[in-house]
Amino acid sequence: MFDENNEVRWIGTEASRRTKSAIAVTLSFVILLGGMAVVGVKGYGAYMDWRQQDDYIGDGGTATQVIVREGVGWGTVADSLVGLDVIRDPGLFEREALKLAAGPVPGTWNILTHLPAKTAAKMMNDPDNKWIMKITMREGRRLSSLFETLIDDLDLNEDDVKRLGWTPEKIEAALAEIVADPKSIGLSKWAEQDWTGPFRGNVEIEDATKLEGFLFPDTYFFTPPIDTGVKSILARFAEEFNDVTGPKDLDIAAKAQALGYSAREIIIIASIIEAEVFIEADRPKVARVIYNRLKEDMPLQMDSVVNYGLNRSGKANLEEGNQDTETPWGVYNFSGLPLTPINSPSRSALMAAVNPAEGNWLYFVTINLDTGETLFADTYDEHVQQREIYRKWCRENPASCPD
Predict the structure, then answer these.
(1) Check: CATH 3.30.1490 for 63-129?
(2) Model pLDDT for residues 261-279, shown as the tens digit of each residue
(3) C-alpha of 304 from chain center
(4) CA distances in angstroms from 40 to 18, 135, 223, 246, listed in the order given
(5) How do residues 386-398 score in pLDDT, each as one tens digit?
(6) Do residues 248 and 254 touch, judged by C-beta distance below 8 A?
(7) CA atoms of 270 and 245, how far apart (whole Å)
(8) Domain chopping of the chain, boundaries
């Protein structure tokens, strides 16, 4: 304590000595307890290691994934799980797994590290733990941007893209292989075309363009990495296209013949319908406009087709000079159909192409791009008036009107 001069002064009394002794005893006790705690923790850790030397106990650790290839058995899976630190004893896991199934299901499985063999076996047989990739090929999608769109839709990172084999180099190589051998993915024979050229405007036809239109837009489920390679995915799309357009469904070939066109021409027409209007009731009318113009030997003069050749959005307004562009899709400059489909048409567009409405229309214009409202006309004068309605709408809705 302090004296009258504010200097520290110890009280040399019996009470003081007792206080010092009590403090010393307390400190010794605390140190003893700390030492015991350290020994206890180390001892418990050693005890748990001893208990888990043959099999983990508990609910598992961190999340991981194991890939099961086609044709492998539980023994191979067990070795993989040991390598991932999921289980300790491969033999114990294999025995537990065989109680549940004769063999593993191929695919990528979500699992945890540090699992008891029995728990790991149950997880490897629970379908909820299997990674299923849901892929939607949108209606009207161009093949050239398909995988770029899928990567965005699935929110894949760079490692995911590499693991799936969806890098630009892999996609380009796969498309080249398919063009060289269309049967490798079961591509429709309607896709066959003489690609030696020369083509209008001396345009070089890209591989994606050569396959355009013969893959069906729908939602599919895949098992990475077993069937998620570029060719595997496109093969599924091609198979569905063949089923939908085949004799057991839409029977496009027979209906095309009845209309006096080839099946390939019908797919091209359907793709134009897909790009031009989205209101289902208008699609047979657009089909009729196309057939009427073909019958009259009139150029189609449809912006969506020209834009495809310019690699621009089908909804974009043509700029000055675009109408004179010399490409196999420059349908302001020649009568007849473009060289290829311009997208992957939907069932609705395909049905409209083979079931055109009755009418004498030669023109149409969508006057409200938000609602899709479209007007049809028999004469050019009427069409000019309708185009003015569209221009007025654009002036009033500049944000909705494309450049």
Answers:
(1) yes
(2) 999 999 999 999 999 999 9
(3) 24
(4) 32, 53, 48, 74
(5) 999 999 999 999 9
(6) no
(7) 12
(8) 63-129, 136-361
